[in-house]
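anyone seen this seq b4? input:
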Amino acid sequence: MGEVRRAIERDVLGEHKRQADFRGAQHLASLLQLVCERHSAERGKLYLIGSISEQSEMLLSIWLWPDEVVDCEIAYDGSKFEIVATRAIAAHKKALRGRALKDFQLVERVALSEQPWQTNSGQD
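predicted toks r here
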């Protein structure tokens, strides 16, 4: 049981670092600023919940704590970025299955530890 707990703690620490790296990434700075401005959000309340690499761009799903998910596109050369969709976190969570659900639960655990004053996180 102790080994499982330590493994979970390592995963959570790794996720904390991943989220901090995401929020501090220079190549994403303009995109994150746009998201913050459009949604009146603070950078400390943005959580990367998924990314898909395509030929010339990356698609990102960003959780705007606590209520929304924003899907964004950013060109690898930084020449373009845009918000392509916004949806409620409850709808996003309802669609998750398998590994995607486990990955989200880890991000959610990190978010709850960083934002302890609000714990509803869009749950029904």
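The radius of gyration is 15 Å. The mean pLDDT is 90. kinda curious what u guys think
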